[in-house]
Amino acid sequence: MNENEQAPETKLTSTKRRWAQAGKFLTGRIARPETDRLPPGQRLVKNWPVLDLGQQPHLILETWRLDVTGLVENPLSLDWNAFQALPQSDSSSDIHCVTSWSRFDNRWHGVLTRDLLDHVMPRSEAAYVMLTSYDGYSTNLPLADFAAEDAILATSWEGEPITRSHGGPMRLVVPHLYFWKSAKWLRRIDLRAADSAGFWERNGYHMRGDPWREERYSGD
Ligand SMILES: Nc1nc2c(c(=O)[nH]1)N[C@H]1C(S)=C(S)[C@@H](COP(=O)(O)O)O[C@H]1N2
Ligand SMILES: [Mo]
């Protein structure tokens, strides 16, 4: 086909085009000056604390799965090999926990949420994501935040596989929101039209959780 000819528009190409256009609005964060790197009310730590509900699942790669469901053109149920076959990327980012510690410069490796979304192709009605984990944890966030350019389904940290206590073999990292949105031991990503509260959000935490706006609790 020469460049003046147009391929006929199929359902697939129109969906891909619409998603690519929607991507223009998913611009991630506004670039911040270095002086604004530590959000208000946070203090820096050098170690990496472990926080969870106290049930750290023992997952084995042979039976591990990740499902992507809801308002998507191509629902997926990936086993470990299929997940590893997705494009792999590196991303460096800071952690901000609502309990007021932050940790700078964490080097992650895994699958960018954008690359996963390119595969499943969200429908136009999809606006929120509900994450569910192997320990029964859940958390919700806007699709635009989930699709931020530095959000990653991480399998390694500082060149080593993510330990079980930090959510291995795979955890989400959404650096521009408080860390409770970054589900460890992630099992399911469900795209929805409406927002509903996950575990901590039902227990008083903020529906969005932007550290620079100190969106810690639902009244903030
Ligand atoms: N599956 C799961 N993910 C979770 C949690 C949890 O209890 N279960 N806790 C959240 C909270 S409150 C925080 S602060 C971070 C802590 O991650 P870390 O233990 O790797 O520091 O994980 C988040 N993701
Ligand atoms: Mo947390």
UniProtKB/TrEMBL annotation:
Record Gene3D superfamilies: Oxidoreductase, molybdopterin-binding domain (3.90.420.10)
Pfam families in UniProt: Oxidored_molyb
CDD domains on file: arch_bact_SO_family_Moco
Domain of life, per lineage: Bacteria
Domain Oxidoreductase molybdopterin-binding: 57-200
Protein name: Molybdopterin-binding protein
Organism of provenance: Sinorhizobium saheli
